[in-house]
Amino acid sequence: MTIFLSGKFLPVEKAHISPFDRGFLFADGVYESIRTYNKKLFRYIDHLDRLKRSLKEIRIDFYDFNSLENIIYELMIKNEIENEALVYLQITRGSVFPRTHSFPKEKISPTVFISVQELKESIEEQTKGVKVILQEDVRWLRCDIKSTSLLPVVLASQKATEENAAEAILVRDGMVTEGTHTNFFAVKNETLYTAPKSHLILEGITRKVVLELCEKFKIDFREEFINKDDLKSFDEFFITSTTKEITPVTSIDYWTINEGNPGKITMSLQSVFKKLVEDY
Ligand code: PLP
Known about the structure:
- The protein is α+β, with helices and mostly antiparallel strands.
- It is built from 7 helices and 16 strands.
- Strands 7, 8, 9, 10, 11, 12, 13, 14, 15 and 16 form a 10-stranded mixed β-sheet that branches.
- The longest helix has 15 residues, at 264-278.
- The model has no long low-confidence stretch (mean pLDDT 97).
- Residues 33, 178, 181-183, 202, 204-207, 240-242 line the site of pyridoxal-5'-phosphate.
């Protein structure tokens, strides 16, 4: 596997970062996951804008955005990606000695790491639906930043894995925020509900596309928090992300929804989404 690390294409075995990299020491960095459809990066500008925003919010001075797209396509060639690709891009504040919490006084170069791999499509999950569990949202209060500091997500995700669930849906002060790596949607009386854009969720690119599709196809939606105790009053649920696209949720903890069948609105949105990306 060939990766890109701070200016160089390298076989992964030859790629090294300093133990003083602030990404390693403090998770002082941000990232993006992007996928291709028809070998083209999907909604690349949206991902780039989100990356720029994340960097700005944590005050990392990185401006060399123009070269990133070419590097990604170059990596696809070097890694002989035959089908669709999943791209991981991470930028940290860089490496400096000695370790100090505040930003280094001297100018340091951010560390840029990009990898691409063959994307595994989750077809079964998308047709049959998945189980999710509810977990307390113990993340920080800037979930709008795509930070590499993901320990609460790691622990919640592991709990989901141990309970044979595909995702943990997070609940803060009784309100459903989002999944560990997905946005969460519920449907009631043919209206979609999802948590509003705020510091409590990441504004997913797939979430954005779903809301655009709702506007196009005149499906009502509300950006509102749902109380965890009201979940049972909803008819359907689904989660969205770059890799999970639109995945129906068929059980939440021990509650099997709609006899374990994906919801109607969910599946019709999934099919218009599929059409959109097919033609991308
Ligand atoms: N919410 C969180 C916390 C995430 O980490 C992600 C993706 O990694 C998403 C939502 C979905 O975002 P996207 O649709 O851009 O993949």
